[in-house]
Amino acid sequence: MITFNRAPYIPKAQEYVADVIKSSEIAGDGKYTKLCSEWMENKFSAKKVLLTTSCTAALEMAAILLDIQPGDEVIMPSYTFVSTANAFAMYGAKTVFVDIRPDTMNIDEKLIEAAITEKTKAIVVVHYAGVACEMDVINNISHKYNIPIIEDAAQGVMATYKDQSLGTIGDLGCYSFHETKNYVMGEGGALVINNEQYLERAEIIREKGTNRARFFRGEVDKYSWVDVGSSFLPSEINAALLYGQLECAEKINDDRLKSYQFYYEHLKDLEAEHCLELAYVPDYCKHNAHMFYVKLKDLEQRERFIRYMREKGAYCVFHYVPLHSSEAGIKYGYFSGTDNYTTTESNRLVRLPMYYGLSKEDKETIIQAIEKFLN
């Protein structure tokens, strides 16, 4: 079976993990945590990057930093992972779901303004598949109403919008280094702080509400409990695993882009014949080949396609069930406007295997199976 996903194996990362274990300095914020943060700050021109235990944790930190309270509203797409909404629902906010664009599967920037009320505390954008939302329009809305932007860039590491790294455009950005992402910690993520007003408090929240980071820098003579917070700091073992991959991030990125282009070149004729639809990447984006998806006619054809591909030895998967249609989504949120595309487009979408080191033979097997199914 051709697996859907496989975490990148980098020998140097194994050496770094062994180095941490031998040192016995396994807790977070050690050498490799700092190296990861510095690498991302330099590579992405980010003001501050704090490693976290997950992208979910980074989103929860963002909710705390924005002082989300019961009765507040947070605008986001319904077509996203549960963590995007859950991080704010935990603190009592209503999630206000906005329809997506059918071309990019991202939030429709033209519908955001109509969803704003006096209770709106944040706009959360999700850069689906590492393809950027239309951030100029969204930034203008943010400035007009003085509403902060949080970028859920879980899938966006190494992708850009008009040459600016995803995660560094809004007030706060959130990355994922989960096993399924381009660069992995097993479980892990990062909070990107672009608005300096959140810098000091973010460190405190991440360290269980203490000013421990200031203590270790010699800025205070002792540390104590000064704010709310939680244990958002990952193990040094996880950071070492990640750093080995960041050192060769371009190599991993290029390999994935080559696989993406292989799929595209071999499927574009089927798109021209209206047998399927391929992903659209606007000119203002540089994506990171986080995924390669196709859209089929409808839900029934997609289900047959997934069964057929697995029979042929290729593990393909569908993606999100729209949150607004879920039990918790109905309880904790509501849909603003009309669901013209969120449900119909999500029912059509299926993801093909994509990972670093995906062989040409496996890609050819996948293409041949797709062609046989559609013909």
What keywords describe this structure?
alpha/beta, Aspartate Aminotransferase, domain 2, Aspartate Aminotransferase, domain 1, 2 domains, three-stranded antiparallel sheet
Task: Walk me through this protein's architecture.
With about 375 residues, the chain is α/β, with parallel strands linked by helices. The protein has 2 domains: about 240 residues, Aspartate Aminotransferase, domain 2, CATH 3.40.640; about 130 residues, Aspartate Aminotransferase, domain 1 (Alpha-Beta Complex). It is built from 14 helices and 14 strands. The strands form 3 sheets. The protein has an 8-stranded mixed beta sheet with strand order 1-9-8-5-4-2-3-13, sandwiched between helices. A 3-stranded antiparallel beta sheet has the order 7-6-11, with no helix packed on it. A 3-stranded antiparallel beta sheet has the order 10-12-14. Strand 2, helix 4 and strand 3 form a beta-alpha-beta unit. The model has no long low-confidence stretch (mean pLDDT about 95).
